[in-house]
Amino acid sequence: MRTWTSVVAAVCAVIFSPVRAEPAPACGIPHEIHDGWTMTVPEKQGLNAALLCAMDEGIRGGKLANVDDIVVIRHGVLVYESYYDYPHQLNYDATTRHNGYSMTKSVVSLLVGIAMDRGLIKDLDAPIASYLPDYKGFREADKDRVTLRHLLTMSAGLGTDRALGVRFEYNSVETELVGTILKKVTGKGVDVLAQENIFAPLGIEDVAWYKDPVSGLPTSSRGLSLRPRDWAKIGQLVLNRGAWDGRQIVSASWIDQSTAEHIKTDKAAFSYGYQWWIGHSSDTSGSLQWAAALGFNSQKTIVIPALDMVVVFNAGRESRNMVAPELDLLDRYILPATSRD
Fold it and tell me: Where is the signal peptide, in residue numbers (predicted)?
């Protein structure tokens, strides 16, 4: 039989014992693979882990976007990564490369900036016929006035009769010509240029780049495969305005130019820079502008300067206009989870 004293003691223990907070959600915690990233839990960089975990649960439960992986960088720190398994398709983890498809174009844009920094390309508005005099597309009316700026902004109108520099028309041939010009002025393919000038300095070691079976040359408009965390390094380089570990890889002025709006596109939500897409998202503080490398099957590397953030999405299934539904995850979960510090 319990004594009155023991009953009182038990009641007091309940009343006065400290309340224990529920443990923080543990989804999306990065794992060390020794690739150079500093890692912390989301809260240490001003993100609400509970909201990120709600996103994670929705994806795994089939209620949200069908993505292969999500990587979030805040203040230069890897704070969240998650990989998703689906039946009857290749599944990914932190050590698996993911094809970036047309995200390759944005890497090639960085190479143009590096070539300009070194004086190998001096003027974006010089006719590119001077680089490629034998290209048959320049034999058409007025196409001898096509410039590198036209190619970078997808406004050259090759194969059409529209005026130069007026209308955006997505055309991978124009990016392939950019790569051809880079090889002409440097003597190297885009794969070698990127390895020497971007991948090596950023510590990106696991790379595959598709080569055209006829020419044997790496494609400039598509075909670059990197680990998701390495795509995030490309985004962080842009967020750092071209700097990495105290070294200026590409000039800040080129980053500013290439990620600024130069032309409206046929997608109402986007404008275009130099092989970078420019978009906006809304949060409680208003509109946030971001720049993104986008690719088929909804590959995305999104750079958000106002939040000091990079977000990578990879997906193995095509989504509408390379836009939905991953941007819904950004707008509904990742941005609301982020403080404005």
Answer: 1-21
Is 70 exceeded by the pLDDT of residue 47?
Answer: yes
In this prediction, residue 322 carries a pLDDT of 65
Contacts of 142 (CB under 8 A, 6+ apart): 164
Does any domain span residue 228?
Answer: yes
Query: How sure is the predictor about 286, in pLDDT bands with cuts at 50, 70 and 90?
Result: confident
Determine the structural domain holding residue 241 and report its residue range: 42-86+96-334
| CATH number for the domain harbouring residue 120 | 3.40.710.10
Structural domains in the chain (count): 1
pLDDT range class, residue 235, cuts 50, 70, 90: very high
